[in-house]
Known about the structure:
The chain is an alpha+beta fold. About 45% of the residues lie in helices and about 10% in strands. The chain has a 4-stranded mixed β-sheet, with helices on one face.
Amino acid sequence: MSVRTKLPEDPAKRSMLLTALYIAQEQYGHLSKEAIERVAQRLGVLPKEVYSTASFYTLYNIEKTARYRIQVCEGLSCHLNDGAESLVDQVRRKLNLKEGQTRTPDGRFSLEIVQCLAACDTAPNIRINDDLHGNMTPGETDALLEKLMRG
Ligand code: FES
């Protein structure tokens, strides 16, 4: 779904919105309808304005996420550093994800391909939940996933 981002016009509310969304996500686990309505109520803005901002940034989870939310960057820097394709292939292979499948059957891992994790200097990058992993190789990706699979 393509959603246009419209921040609240009040600069004070605008500056609080991103932080409020982050805190709500920490409390609710993801930005559910209830969480979005709560943030909107607290800031005095419309829920659709909160939703449009939350859905724009890859940092926020609109839907309930897996225990390990894996985001592989396919932005230009990561792509040019031999990242996106080989890392996605490695994640799929390790988690035994079929083409088009984005979540393991047990719900522990989900895979998203995103555009720029704002850390181009360490491309190629993977983010798992709140942790950014830079300069990744397929081998390092395999080792990281192996550790999480055991945990
Ligand atoms: S292009 Fe991958 S972090 Fe920017």
